[in-house]
Design goal:
The longest helix is centred in the first third of the chain and has 32 residues, at 13-44. The protein has one domain (12-142). It has helices at 3-6, 13-44, 50-75, 80-110, 119-129, 132-142. The chain starts with a helix and ends in a 5-residue tail after the last helix. Helix 2 packs across helix 3 (50-75), helix 2 packs across helix 6 and helix 4 (80-110) crosses helix 5 (119-129). It is globular and about 55 Å long. By secondary structure, it is mainly alpha-helical.
């Protein structure tokens, strides 16, 4: 059995705190593209299928999150290639699960592709809680994070 796996546990306060910070950056990055896309269609009233809007929102959320994380890593003196590789590779599962959870929450609560004052905090909370344990596990097992 792998030593890291054998010694793994869910009780490390410092890892929970660090993984929460990483997850918050991810939520922030994903939200920019996701909410921006939904808001664009909501304000312009361009007729487009809800599933199409939500798919575009997920794609744009992934793009803005990768861009934000790449920028953060560049500020930490990563090369551009390493920053992009790290931002994409280490948090893509986290970002994808976050995006799906946020958009599914929006769909279940509003019918989809509708931003209201009361749904945004719920979407953000669900978007945070969904990948947080994965980010903890990844950080604890591999000592890998994006920030």
């Amino acid at each position: 059995m792998d030593l890291a796996l054998k010694n793994f546990h869910w009780r490390c306060k410092n890892t929970w705190i660090k993984s929460a910070k990483n997850t918050l950056w991810c939520v922030f990055g994903c939200s920019i593209g996701d909410f921006g896309t939904i808001l664009f269609f909501q304000l312009t009233k361009i007729p487009f299928p809800i599933l199409g809007i939500m798919t575009l929102a997920i794609i744009n959320g992934l793009i803005t999150s990768i861009l934000l994380e790449t920028f953060i890593l560049l500020k930490q003196n990563f090369s551009l290639k390493d920053a992009i590789k790290t931002a994409f590779g280490m948090s893509f599962i986290s970002m994808l699960s976050m995006e799906i959870a946020m958009n599914l929450t929006d769909y279940l609560l509003t019918g989809g592709a509708i931003l209201t004052w009361w749904v945004i905090p719920i979407m953000l909370l669900v978007g945070f809680l969904t990948p947080w344990p994965y980010n903890y596990w990844r950080l604890k097992k591999f000592n890998e994070s994006c920030h």
